[in-house]
Write a structure and sequence with these properties.
By secondary structure, this protein is of the alpha+beta class. About 15% of the residues lie in helices and about 20% in strands. It is built from three helices and five strands; from the N terminus they run ββαβααββ. It has a five-stranded mixed beta sheet with strand order 2-1-5-3-4. About 30% of the residues are buried.
Length: about 110
């Protein structure tokens, strides 16, 4: 089990336990984290689960796939160098302690 910290756009933080094999998006939805919508259910089709991964941890994640790259170009909040779709980040021992910041808006 990993722990993920979600930091809202206003600076509030919430750390939750995440099941291995789940995604950062699903974990947020399971814990009622505001700021993650996940309209497409985790299929990388809507970009409403956009997050900014902590800079120090970004390179530890698997590379961005082409389809995720395309969706990151249509996020409602500005894309940054550390932008990812949280539905594409699988929870594992390697993501324990992951910190993600939520954008101002997802829609």
């Amino acid at each position: 089990m990993a722990r993920i910290t979600y930091i809202s756009s206003d600076g509030g933080a919430e750390t939750v336990d995440a099941d291995d094999g789940s995604t950062v998006m699903q974990t947020a939805l399971n814990h009622n984290i505001k700021g993650i919508v996940g309209e497409c259910g985790g299929n990388a089709l809507c970009a409403t689960c956009h997050v900014y991964v902590d800079e120090a941890q970004f390179d530890q994640l698997p590379p961005i796939a082409d389809f995720e790259e395309e969706m990151l170009d249509v996020t409602s909040s500005p894309r940054k160098d550390t932008s990812r779709l949280s539905c594409q980040i699988t929870v594992s021992e390697a993501t324990d302690g992951l910190i993600v910041r939520l954008p101002e808006t997802q829609e």
